[in-house]
Design brief:
Elements lengths: L2 H8 L17 E5 L3 E6 L9 E9 L5 E4 L5 E6 L4 E5 L7 E3 L2 E4 L6 E4 L4 E8 L5 H4 L10 E3 H4 L3 H9 L5 H15 L8 H13 L6 H8 L3 H11 L4 H16 L8 H8 L4 H12 L3 H12 L11 E2 L2
Antiparallel strand pairs: 1-2, 2-3, 3-10, 4-9, 4-12, 5-8, 5-10, 6-7, 6-9, 8-11
Length: 315
């Protein structure tokens, strides 16, 4: 699994440790994080073109409040337990109580998520462009927003709840979710989605290091056309997607157990201006690099928080 993919998987609940080996379609990952059980897998084709993984998360969270930085992913959560709560880093956005299920488009700023005392959650990590053929609305209407599932998929949460039941295994729950996803996948992709998927794959493989001009030249389209298609299917421009991939690579490269050479890590991730790196890091995490790694070291030593990067517990 790529660095960006692992970062997206970690965003499931701030509990799961990154998987060191690639997962193929249909292969299942089972994780135990103390009092949390994680079962996830890459769905079978054609869903794997748009989805990084589907997962089921149950148990008692080691940390109920987590701070989530921008990651290259859109999300679907079906909450089978008690409500969760979300606070946007934009103070003008009111907090939300997240009950039955919600979609989240690509998120470009950090937010804080508070889980209930016990989690029973099934979810999907879409590729940045992956929500487009399922949602039925322009991606820019979902960017930096959480939308109730039933607002887009009428009565789907109740149907999945009825099929799952209280005693269903994680594997059975994921089968119900995948059936729902297959039934919602449009047969004919919308105009421009193939272009976005193709060029988005280049951004993922390069961790956002390909210049946008080179990306559009390689695709044989203008930069303006590519930007318009990304806005329609991702919600942001390819430049913004590249920034998020670049940050995901950086944050996954931090070794909280050893010395951190921020200049070298930033340069490797594609940051060539130290001032810009410092500002973006603070924007994305709410902390300076020094503050961030100190907190990572503190929480890494705690039982139940061993992930290599991604969300951080809130003090």
């Amino acid at each position: 699994m790529s660095l960006a993919s692992r970062a997206r998987v970690v965003a499931a609940a701030g509990q799961r440790q990154g998987c060191p080996a690639p997962l193929e379609a249909g292969q299942t990952l089972v994780g135990d994080t103390g009092s949390m059980d994680y079962v996830g897998r890459v769905p079978a084709p054609p869903l794997d073109r748009f989805i990084d993984d589907v997962y089921c998360l149950t148990g008692v969270p080691g940390h109920r409040r987590i701070s989530v930085s921008p990651m290259p992913s859109a999300h679907l959560y079906i909450n089978l337990g008690e409500p969760a709560h979300l606070w946007d880093s934009d103070p003008s956005v009111p907090p939300a109580e997240l009950t039955d299920g919600w979609f989240m488009g690509l998120w470009t700023r950090r937010f804080v998520l508070e889980y209930p005392t016990r989690i029973h959650l099934v979810g999907v990590h879409f590729k940045p462009w992956g929500l487009s053929p399922f949602a039925g609305v322009p991606a820019n209407e979902l960017r930096d927003r959480w939308v109730p599932v039933d607002a887009l998929w009428h009565r789907s949460v109740d149907r999945m709840r009825n099929q799952v039941g209280d005693a269903a295994s994680a594997a059975a729950t994921l089968r119900v979710l995948e059936r729902e996803l297959r039934s919602r996948l449009v047969e004919a992709p919308a105009r421009g989605l193939d272009l976005v998927q193709h060029t988005g794959g280049w951004l993922e493989a390069s961790h956002g290091a390909i210049p946008v001009a080179a990306l559009s030249d390689a695709a044989g389209v203008s930069s303006n056309h590519l930007a318009a298609q990304f806005k329609a299917h991702v919600g942001v421009t390819p430049k913004r997607v590249a920034r998020i991939y670049r940050f995901a690579r950086l944050i996954e490269s931090v070794d909280s157990l050893g010395p951190v050479d921020w200049s070298e890590l930033a340069l490797t991730a594609g940051y060539f201006d130290q001032a810009h790196f410092s500002k973006e890091f603070k924007d994305f995490t709410g902390r300076t690099p020094t503050e961030y790694v100190a907190l990572r070291r503190r929480f890494t030593a705690e039982q139940g928080f061993s992930q290599p990067g991604g969300p951080m517990p809130v003090e």
